[in-house]
Specification:
There is one protein chain. By secondary structure, this protein is an alpha/beta fold. It folds into 2 domains: about 210 residues, Rossmann fold (3-Layer(aba) Sandwich); about 60 residues, no CATH class. It has 10 helices and 11 strands. Strands 2-1-6-10-11 form a 5-stranded parallel sheet, with helices on both faces. Strands 3-4-5 form a 3-stranded antiparallel sheet, with helices on one face. A 3-stranded antiparallel sheet has the order 8-7-9, with no helix packed on it.
């Protein structure tokens, strides 16, 4: 057996059914784990109209569903929605960065972001939901599942893994509220490949399995709901610790980009693939630091970048959204 065949057996490349749902003008919304932010950054850097995590990073399906519900119902936050701890008000529905010494300032920030997100979702084409864990933290004194513990002591919380029934309900709540905002939006789930090793290896496997199993049950009832196997690509196709960072939990930048490319190949038009490559090449050129200190060389490089930028716009006349900072 040849060395090339043996080398190929180190990976398990699997077929993903193509499902072209997006093009260079698609507006994309991302919500969920830190992995959603990684994929969002790729699209934002390529000049797509996109929005990510209006409540900050959220890991569990219950908190993700609550986020979409609050947006769809145009909920107005006020001081009574917050928990006071260590001299600051905290929104337990949100990521730990949602805190402030003044409750009204915090409420104003959250309400502005809800308004902005609602407007974006009304015209969005695709919502990508990336749950990361089925484990939840419930704050004992208010008997509420929280989006983040906000560095409040652990003894104030009870932890558990959501049942499959609870996860399916959360998924269905997401679908209902997305469609309440925008009946035409396409909804795609993908499980974050980031491992939650602090919960324990076995607990992480149970958690991820439950998220995936619940999705399979959901899609049997709602076949129009899309699924992309980010988790399976990292754990089964790449299947090697060299594709994880030093913490052995997060995918490396290379692995993240590989999953991003597989996602584009699966869900975007061929024109979109070429556009993303051209846009990223131009941005690398634009962000390149000219080594020469000669002002003429610097000015010529800037002119060259501007010309390549104009060529990019000319090559894709059908593209309607161009970031203002690209001008």
């Amino acid at each position: 057996m040849s060395s090339e065949i043996l080398k190929n057996r180190l990976n398990t490349h699997f077929f993903i059914e193509p499902n072209t749902i997006a093009n260079i003008n698609s507006q994309l919304f991302f919500v969920g784990s830190c992995f959603s932010e990684n994929i969002y950054n790729y699209f934002q850097n390529a000049g797509f109209a996109c929005l990510n995590n209006p409540f900050g990073i959220l890991f569990n399906p219950h908190s993700i569903a609550l986020c979409i519900e609050k947006i769809a119902t145009e909920y107005r936050y006020s001081a009574h929605d917050f928990t006071y701890h260590s001299g600051e008000f905290h929104s337990m529905h949100h990521h730990g960065s949602y805190k402030h010494k003044d409750a009204e300032t915090l409420a104003s920030r959250i309400n502005r972001e809800i308004e902005m997100t609602l407007e974006f979702l009304s015209n969005a084409d695709i919502a990508v939901i990336t749950p990361g864990t089925a484990k939840v933290w419930q704050m004992n004194r208010i008997e509420m599942i929280v989006g983040n513990c906000h560095k409040i002591p652990n003894h104030e919380f009870t932890t558990r893994i959501l049942t499959e029934t609870e996860i399916i309900k959360a998924y269905k709540d997401c679908i209902y509220h997305f469609r309440l905002i925008n009946p035409n939006i396409k909804i795609l789930f993908t499980i974050s490949p980031v491992k939650h090793l602090r919960d324990g290896i076995q607990e992480n496997v149970i958690s991820k399995s439950r998220l995936i199993s619940a999705l399979a049950t959901l899609r049997a009832e709602h076949p129009e709901i899309l699924y992309f196997p980010s988790y399976e690509i990292l754990t089964e196709e790449l299947r090697d610790h060299r594709f994880y960072t030093e913490d052995l939990a997060h995918p490396t930048p290379w692995a993240t980009e590989y999953i991003f490319n597989r996602f584009c190949e699966n869900c975007f038009t061929q024109e979109s693939h070429q556009y993303i490559e051209d846009a990223r090449n131009w941005l690398r050129m634009k962000n390149h630091r000219v080594m020469s200190e000669n002002q003429i060389d610097i000015d010529n490089w800037k002119l060259r970048c501007e010309e390549v930028g104009r060529q990019l716009r000319s090559k894709y006349p059908s593209k309607t959204h161009w970031p203002a900072q690209w001008a």
